[in-house]
Amino acid sequence: MVRANVRHKIWAGGHVARFDRYLLSQLLVLFGFFALVLISVYWVNRAVVLFDQLIADGHSARVFLEFSALSLPPVIAQVLPMSAFAGAVYVTNRLSADSELTVMQATGFSPWRLARPVLYYGLIVALMMTLLTHLLVPASVKQLREREVEISASVSARLLREGTFLHPASGVTLFIRAITPEGELQDIYLADRRNPDRPVTYTAERAYLVREDGATQMVMVNGQAQRLDRDRQSLSLTEFADYSQDISTLIEVGRTLRPRLSFLPTFALLADPEGMAEIARSTPAKVLEEAHQRFAQPLLCLCAALIGFAALQTGGFSRFGLARQIVFAILLLVFIKMVESAVTGPVRDNAALWPLVYTPVVAGLLIAWVLLWRAARPRRLRPQGAPA
Description:
Layout: H1 2-54, H2 61-70, H3 72-97, H4 100-106, H5 111-152, H6 155-159, E1 165-169, E2 172-179, E3 185-192, E4 200-212, E5 215-229, E6 234-246, H7 266-271, H8 273-280, H9 284-313, H10 323-349, H11 359-376
Antiparallel strand pairs: 1-2, 2-3, 3-4, 4-5, 5-6
């Protein structure tokens, strides 16, 4: 008899472990699917904007791919909570429709016990989110910002655009009719009115950009220069076979890279809020809000997974599906986002209120606990003949 009980316990333990692995694998597979779909949608929208900005400005496809790759970590961090919620809801709804959860509950599994693989699933997603918020996102945002500053200061990016009147600096106008594959600029118009008393206008049949001694020279061929002297009320016209103009001085210096809170290290934000606020030209309250948001966002992934599972557990088995419970779960997520929006303003105004950043996390965990408690309560059958 004792040997039979031991065999039964061993079999039950192995059965439980297999179910946990089965449910966890289903959750991770569906999470990967929804994450891939949502990331693709967000990335395509972002890539279209980047393509219009970069390719139209004369940049190569390599620069476009680089910017697209650097913009991926923030996109991934944005869609992970939604993917965790969608995966939990889809798997729970499918297992309920196939009566698999009903069978497990009939063997003695409570909603609390069924939620254990979902808890593991939420912790795995939270770990991914932690790596993103603390490491990948700050590094990618910083690198992306550095490349934007480099490109904004690039002479070729500011000037090599055909068929468009460009204004690389105040009082400077440049027009290039066409650019050949060999890099020859055709039909050049360059007007320099930075000195209102002596404006100069250059026109040429063709031109070339030459890099010399760290400066960019535009060598114009077969053109003329018109100089207007307003003091003497005279206009001089000079024709030239070739003329070299330093166009580096015609372009305003690009903006310097100013540190932002989004790419400062988390440890530095927590260790010295006042110093980081001075560096980023922000306030200590915003510094603490940024630092603690990096801890709260992974926990919200856990809350999303648990809420998606627990909300569907309250419905039990139904041949008509769990549409009402799914809508209810979505409304609960909307409520969590409303709480997050409500506490953001006070936290950014007062540094002492940084614990409010975790209010959505506490609310989400409390909601999941209440839903599981409600699902675990035995449903009492109404006596026959009792009034509805």
